[in-house]
């Protein structure tokens, strides 16, 4: 009987320690609609595979390496590594070291990740939405992640969609 009581009590204790998910985690941010509009464009085409192929080509033209591609799901993921050194941050670290003898970490490298998802937006499949998101993770000179953020610069998204529009047009007309 004792063999069953101890595990049962341990289970009740563990259940009592369980944390709940905060309600705000499931809430959309105030800028969610704006972000989605920045990240999404519609293309009149029945050929989702060609749209994905054009998207992959644009990513490669922009210097991204393709990491994953699943045409049946309409998904592409890529990344590129870049230097994250900023002169102002280095100057601040030098000042802190000179004045207080404190070695401040400075950003060294970053990985910019991109994901593209496509989806038919009508029943006939004649129009598809393309959503692209850019994120970056920055590591400091100590190997620690110092930033992890969604990139929201409109110019980046405009550049991607301009190149994609041209690529889709050229591919549709076999140019």
Overall mean pLDDT = 86
State the CATH topology.
TATA-Binding Protein
N- to C-terminal distance: 80 Å
Give Rg in angstroms: 24 Å
**What's the total number of strands?**
6
Helical stretch tally: 5
Q: Which overall shape is indicated by the principal axes computed on the Cα atoms?
A: globular
Low-confidence stretches: none
Strand content: 25-35%
Look at the structure and give the CATH class.
Alpha Beta
Helix-strand makeup class: alpha+beta
- Fraction in helix: 40-55%
As for the number of domains, it is 1
What is the H level of CATH, i.e. the homologous superfamily? Kinase associated domain 1, KA1
Strand count, sense and barrel status of the largest sheet are: 6 strands, antiparallel
What does this structure look like?
It is a single chain. The chain has 175 residues and is α+β, with helices and mostly antiparallel strands. It has one domain: TATA-Binding Protein (2-Layer Sandwich), CATH 3.30.310. Helices cover 41% and strands 31% of the residues. It has five helices and six strands. The chain has helices at 2-17, 32-39, 48-61, 87-100, 154-172; strands at residues 40-44, 65-70, 75-83, 107-120, 127-140, 145-151. Strands 1, 2, 3, 4, 5 and 6 form a six-stranded antiparallel β-sheet that branches. Strand 4 (107-120) and strand 5 form a beta hairpin. Helix 3 (48-61) packs across helix 5. The mean pLDDT is 86.
């Amino acid at each position: 009987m004792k063999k069953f009581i101890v595990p049962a009590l341990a289970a009740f204790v563990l259940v009592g320690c369980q944390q709940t998910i905060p309600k705000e985690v499931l809430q959309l941010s105030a800028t969610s609609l704006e972000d989605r509009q920045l990240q999404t464009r519609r293309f009149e085409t029945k050929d989702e595979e060609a749209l994905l192929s054009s998207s992959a080509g644009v990513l490669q033209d922009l210097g991204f390496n393709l990491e994953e591609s699943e045409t049946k799901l309409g998904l592409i993921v890529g990344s590129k590594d870049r230097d994250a050194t900023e002169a102002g941050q280095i100057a601040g670290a030098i000042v802190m070291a000179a004045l207080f003898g404190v070695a401040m970490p400075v950003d060294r490298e970053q990985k910019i990740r991109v994901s593209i998802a496509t989806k038919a937006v009508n029943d006939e499949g004649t129009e598809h939405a393309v959503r692209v998101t850019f994120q970056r993770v920055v590591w400091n000179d100590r190997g620690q992640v110092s930033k992890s953020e969604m990139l929201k610069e409109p110019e980046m998204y405009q550049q991607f969609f301009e190149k994609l529009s041209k690529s889709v047009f050229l591919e549709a007309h076999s140019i």
